[in-house]
Amino acid sequence: MAETHLDQAERHIREGEDRVARLATLLDELGGRGHHKAAEEAKRTLMSLRCSLELARDHLQIGRATPGP
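^ that's the sequence the OP posted. Answer follows.
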């Protein structure tokens, strides 16, 4: 069975959540190794990624609530 657009969006969100979790771990390691300036810059990027992921979740929820053809 072919993957629907909603299934694909859900998969992308799951993959994004995994990536964000891995990046958060790497960010902790970066700060722990004394790279504080780089960690601060990475933290801003991670915040942006988390915001984008939240928007994707919201969009998926709207898609699920909207009757399809």
